[in-house]
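Let us begin with a simple case.
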Amino acid sequence: MAADTTENSFKKKEWGTQSHIIVEIVEYVPDSIVSRTIITKQNGKVIVSSFDEGEKLCEKTTNYDTYVQIIDGEANITIDKVDHELKLGEGIIIPAYSLHCFKADQQFKMITTVIRGVAQK
């Protein structure tokens, strides 16, 4: 189960115009993945997500390069059948059109930055 809050409701709380602690924007919810879009523009977006222990989000691809950084806990990310274990503060680029999967052996939070440019093939 996943929850998502759009940029409009994010702005209603006025977090977009005030300083904030990024790791506190989303909480852990049992048996869930929670995502909140921080900003969406024509050329990209930034999302903060939390994964409860045991959750996974697999068989995904995007048309654009994506950068993820772990801001709490540790995550297992598979990109094109290669496993990566990311610890707090570490990041990785997921190339456009790469099959990828996020797995939470423990709770973790991440920032996802999608860079929209010319779609690559």
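The second case is a distinct protein. As before, the sequence precedes its structure tokens.
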Amino acid sequence: MTRFLNYGRAIALPFIILFFSACNSSPPPPGIKLIEAIDFELHKIDAIKYAPDEYNKFKVNLRMLKDKIVQEESKLSFLKNYESIQKNIGAISGDGKRLLIAINEDKSKRGKKISDKIKKLEDKAGIINKLTLKVNVGASTRKLLTKGGIALSEAKASIDIGRYDSAMEKVEDAAALLNGAEKLVTPILKRYSQNDIINKWRKFVRDTIDESKRKKMAVIVVDKAERTLTLYINGKILQTFNIGFGRYGYRDKLFSGDDATPEGRYKIIKKSGRGESKYYKALLLDYPNQEDRKEFLKAKKRGLISKNARIGGLIEIHGGGEESTTNGCIALENNHMDELFDKVAIGTPVTIVGATSIENELYYGLKGLEGDS
């Protein structure tokens, strides 16, 4: 009988184990796949850069969770219990989701901030570009503008793929390049925004118009900022023409070869008709006059120009078109030159100024740059 009972127990034991296994065991938690997916997303958005402490804590908790699962899975089936692990999975996945949301929001804010900086720099580049087309400051400025534009394009491309650190580096490069361009163009613009210089130019124009009225004669006033030449008769405007300059026409001429257009009060000393000038027709001015020579010597003493520099001459109002190549002269369209040529004589006063009002395009250009700084 005892042998029979022992044999019965031996047969029943596996069934008991299977029974408890079926009743008490639970399948491995499926939530681990969700956490791994969250971890993959966090890795993709460079969580280690944006929230290193939180991400490292998430990784530690994930590793500990996986260790617990391995330990649990090593137990006999009827002894396995994933209830506490399942709670951990809920907590860790919740932390991961919140971290994902926080980092994406932070990146979105960074992207917006960088985009705003790009827009501001693009506006600045637009102002400088417009001014450099009007006030020729040479190849160096154009080169800086071009490089700055490329850097801004690269910054935009980096934002599009979520590389905000790279985007910020490109923005800083662009800012440095555009600041360099601004420094080159600003000294020229400042002359057109200083009241003492504007007032001097206004007096030149006022005295010239008064002379026209008093002597009942023709006079010419050239306004660089407006790019106009105005013919007065008896103190009243008769005609106004658009004009062109040389490369550095907005600067005041100091020496031969600087391609600047002189500023001051001059007279026509020679009229060259068609066939007598390579620029269709020309009116030669008495540059340099006594005031020009005085300023030339001052500039030499102050070291602003070379000791070997010459003062130069041959400044004309001539035809050939507003876009014709000229070195410090004032150019008109040929049909406008015909009209002007017939109405002036040798001895006609010609006053050339930078501007007649503080409210000129170059002044507003400078204010625009200051507003973007």
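Residues 128 and 306 are 29 Å apart (CA to CA). The longest strand covers residues 264-277.
Keep these points in mind for the review questions at the end of the chapter.
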